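Final report, closing paragraph on structural work. Over the funding period we assembled a curated collection of sequence-structure pairs, and we close with a single example.
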Amino acid sequence: MTSYTHRERVIAALNHREPDRMPVDLMGHATMLLDETYERLRDFLGLSPIPPVRSGTSANYYDERILAHFDVDFRRLFLKTHPEAPLIHHPDGSYTDAWGICSKRSGMHVNVVGSPLTSASTVAEVEAFAWPNVQQLFTAQGLAAEARRQYEQTDYALVARNPLSYGLRERACMLMGMQEFMTALALQPAVAECIIGHLLDIYKDVYGMFLDAVGPYVQTVEVGDDLGSQQGLLISASMYRRFFKPAERELYDLIHAKAPGAKLIRHSDGAFFSLIPDLIEIGVDVLNPVQSSAKGMAAATLKSTFGQQLAFHGGIESIEGDVPTDALIAEVKNRIDVLGPGGGYVLASCNHMMDVRPENIIAMFETAHAYGRYR
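Its predicted structure, as stored:
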């Protein structure tokens, strides 16, 4: 069997070829460890504490030592939050960000508790909103040099980490309130379109800044926006195609133009099988997180239907809580058997690890490395 570097392994797999073993991933857009899970794993491995890479979210740590321990094939490049980005802390523990969105941590999760456009009912009110600009949100200072260093001095597949976390629909719901924005899609389409248009301009500026710095060096770029619940679409297919598909096409065209050698990884939870052809049409190369428990999203169905056009990333769901390690190992082997033939699969957790025992994280990666070898 030919020897592969981490980068070569990922490139081969994402181009539907079989490398020496299945690539594995951790600490990406939808494969982070929530803080408590991270800290338990860190302590279990005997590692000393390190500062978080970010704050204000439920998954704040990115730890090179853990990536090396599990021989993870990917490394992330982060567009840094601007040090002067507005962030107002309130006495009740909530905080308001540069978007004017107020959030508060509750247990393992961070929830929106205040939406600045809740009462907006006209295009004029949306236009008058104090929309943030990219210079308020992020800085790319030093990023091009860091990307070049990692490209030349390591052999990992480099990822432009999703800088915005939330997609256009999700961000619009945070700005207006989910009920209010979903209602606007149906009853006030001009208002909804205006919000999406402003978001698209900002998202293009953000990804433009990011990829102007790292585009020549990355092998993948992350984007995301949830389209489905466990049972079906969050919005109708016709609404997606009217309001979001054109905007996503425009954003993805920009990404492909600025990172022409990179695959675009698109995250969406839930059941959205009917929209996968639309995602392929607008430039999605890799689908994450392969949530097979959702209606109509079985891994075998995805592979047989779209495996020639898409690669898959994620897939491991039986990992949370007190799930028996034997059951987890069986699922890892099943995903490898179903999604691995012919390449086109990166093994990772299906979404963030919220409350996972260190033993199960270790078992997942050990099984992937031992069982996921191409023969």
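The two ends are 8 Å apart (CA to CA). The chain has one domain: 6-83+123-371. We thank the funder for supporting this effort.
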